[in-house]
TrEMBL record:
Entry keyword annotation includes Cell membrane: yes
Molecular function (Gene Ontology), one example: phosphatidylserine decarboxylase activity
Protein name: Phosphatidylserine decarboxylase
InterPro entries documented for this protein: PS_Dcarbxylase (IPR003817), PSD-A (IPR033175)
GO biological process, one term: phospholipid biosynthetic process
Keywords: Cell membrane, Decarboxylase, Lipid biosynthesis, Lipid metabolism, Lyase, Membrane, Phospholipid biosynthesis, Phospholipid metabolism, Pyruvate, Transmembrane, Transmembrane helix, Zymogen
Transmembrane residue ranges: 20-44
Superkingdom of this protein's organism: Archaea
């Protein structure tokens, strides 16, 4: 794995890059187009360093808050990742992974309400749960963790290739007054506090 890139960067970026280099002398526009496509794939899979705050539940993804709703007494905050966002997902708080569950499903646009039925990977950390949700173009969810793993706030959970959404289902003790974001706000994975923890 190349530092600063997710494991999928070279797998998706190298083939069009190499093909572009070979084809550019023969067919300039096609070759240059493939080089641009390869560079875009590599940039899409970038993995910058993050500095988590000392408290609170942080955003699980870069992007725009697309969901804030209550579910059976708990609050869900969902973040839609645009194609230009970093797609590495991070732990909202410290905890121990109890289970990692893959659930097959549809591939609706990740920003739509129908995306709740999309293919997903749920990372259950007991007090909170993170759902990595595939979009219409993103069919590849890559979790990095498994049951029994201990996490610190901001640790990497995985990444989703090519567009997606990541949700955090907060603990029951977190109330609407504890939220620090609203729908439509931009957030940064591992750094932006989406809710304070009343127990901290």
């Amino acid at each position: 794995m190349v530092r600063g890139l997710t494991p999928g960067a070279l797998r998706y970026g190298l083939p069009p890059l190499l093909a572009g280099v070979v084809l550019t002398p023969v067919s300039g526009p096609i070759g240059l187009g493939l080089v641009a496509l390869g560079l875009a794939a590599v940039l899409f899979h970038r993995d910058p360093q993050r500095e988590p705050p000392e408290s609170g539940f942080v955003a699980p993804a870069d992007g725009s808050v697309s969901v804030v709703r209550e579910e059976e007494g708990r609050i869900r905050v969902g973040v839609f990742m645009n194609v230009t966002d970093v797609h590495v997902n991070r732990a909202p708080a410290a905890g121990t992974v109890e289970s990692v569950t893959h659930r097959p499903g549809a591939n609706k646009p990740a920003f739509s309400k129908d995306s709740d039925r999309n293919e997903r990977v749920d990372v259950d950390c007991g007090e909170y749960e993170v759902s990595l949700i595939a979009g219409w173009f993103a069919r590849r969810i890559h979790p990095y963790v498994e049951g029994g793993d201990d996490l610190d706030r901001g640790d990497k959970l995985g990444h989703i290739s090519f567009g997606s959404r990541a949700d955090v289902l907060l603990p029951e003790r977190v109330e609407h007054a504890d939220l620090r974001v609203n729908e439509g706000e931009d957030v940064t994975a591992g750094e932006t506090v989406v809710a304070v923890d009343p127990d901290e």
